[in-house]
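Team,

Forwarding the record for the chain on the shared tracking sheet. I've put the sequence and predicted structure together so nobody has to dig through attachments.
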Amino acid sequence: MSPLKRRAGAALAATVFATAALGGVAGAQDEGQRLVYAIDGEITQLNNANSDVPTAAATVWLYSALYTYDDTLTPVPDLAAEPAEISEDGLTWTIKLVKNATFQPTGDKLTADDVVFTYKMSNSPNCRFNPSICLAFVTVTPEGATEPVPVLQSVEKVDDYTVRFVLADKYAPFLTTILPATLIDSRKAVTDAFGKFSKDVEKIDAAKVADLLTRIQAERDAAATEERDADLAQFRVEVEEFLAAADLTIPADADFTAEDGTVDVAALMDTAIASLDELNLILSSEKIDKIAAAYPLLRTAKKPVGSGPFYVTEFRPGQDITAVANPKYHRGEPQIKTLIMPIIKDDVAASAALKAGDIDWKYSLTSDGLAQIEGDPNVKTAEYADFGYFALMFNLREGQLFAEKEVRQALAYCVDKPATVEAATDARGVAIYADIPPASWAYNPEVPKYEVDPAKAAELLDAAGWTDEDGDGIRAKGDRLLQTEILVRAGKPDRIKFMQLLADQAKECGFDISIKEADFATVLLPGLEYPHIFPGTDKPWDAYFGGWGTGYDPDPYSLWHSSQCTTAELPDTYNFVCFQNERADELIEAGLKELDQAKRAEIYQEFEGIMAEELPYLWAWSDIARQGLRATVNGAEPWTAENMTSPAWSWEVEKITNVPAAQ
């Protein structure tokens, strides 16, 4: 998921914004010691709880993990002093730590206590890290066992600079995914932050919170039985009183107000009750599980304490982050002394700022943005095969428009995917038909492809009972039209164009699809959590167009295993479309245990065949990823088109410089 690629990690308006927000950065370069790195979305949690690309792109500069990826995408020691010592059975991993890593801005030394603390939070049933690195959510079934067990059996301190992990079974992604992606937290900073947070929480009567949630659930159950809408507004005052007492955010009417001025109280209450559920979990837990549950709510999510090359000195939500070099960074003091990360959501605007010299680095270039800077001698681009993809994601739950495979397949037969991708991306995307991207060693080029075949689409829809009885061009089944609105992230022209072209083609097959642009942080992200109702709407969405930045390891567990389907108990896991397939589960589990890469590839290629057939997503394209930089930005050696061809080409962050040419 996106944390694993963290290191790859109107024009006039943009120029004015960037210069004003950064205090005239373009004219304030200090011997190349300042770098302006644009972020394309709102910042959420600046720690292991981050689950979106913009925040991950900022977080990478602030933390370190036990391992990282070098420019060949090989996992190599970072906070680990040397490669892990692995027992013959593959179950015990002993890791020695470097002795010169410090947390900033506190200056505390990083020791085994911090590593153990971080991994215990990851292994807590209340883990609130990015789901892709919550070990508590990963289970294995060792040979001879009848029930799955957590993959991490224990993590312990051997001495101040040695940690031992014991796994329940062989787990290939432990090295390739977990060790490079789990950011090591400061035990002291997190526990101190929890202490301040809990002073308010400890005053709350846990029994009263539990009673309120019981009454809310009773109302929901009664409403379902009586076939009416639940009256949750009756609990609003009580819910908000508890949230206020815990100093938690209270949802505002303005965030749930439609264009006609009406407030979607039901959606507002769902959001408030979700926060109350979190509070209840904190109140009902003990020790490390209590801290794990509260983790995203702690002040360290906005005032991070990490051991990375930079640390935050100012964070202005919605505007920018300022960070300075960690003088005691264990890999060497960074050459860049000040790092500024402005938030510029619009790709075209950010590219204009790059061309104007108001920013130095844009980590993602769309085709429109690239067109602005092509040929400019002051700007260069990194280009590499992207580990990620974009897709139309179907809500597979019963009663949703695309719950039937025949409807999903019919839509696929309506779309000329290669031509649509070429038009939407200006030929800078590669059409794909399953979830493992072409850049991966596990990619299966032989999966079935859906060629344009309107007759086949009509056959599938007819068989599923979707017909055009009244001849208006829109198929229906009973009193339900083959009609839906699909949200797409605003400011992403290639995604928007793809969906507009798809909707036009689908119309010829009897679909009525409308496209709506929406803000990522305030609308789309909340709607990806269970029960999957976007703010301002009143029912779960049928489909959503978005993308994933996948890891270098092809393990699909967090996205596709049945156990990761979102529910009221697991509201924010990544299988939010709720794909469930027994054979797919078997293959996913087998791939986790197989340490031989060639055999793992065979497993995942069979899995890809299932995905192409079941079509839980209508996969669109994988990018040829591009990043834009000012020509003055380099590493230990000058960065050129020849050596910026890996997603991890900039991995030695401490060696980055930004030195203008001599005048």
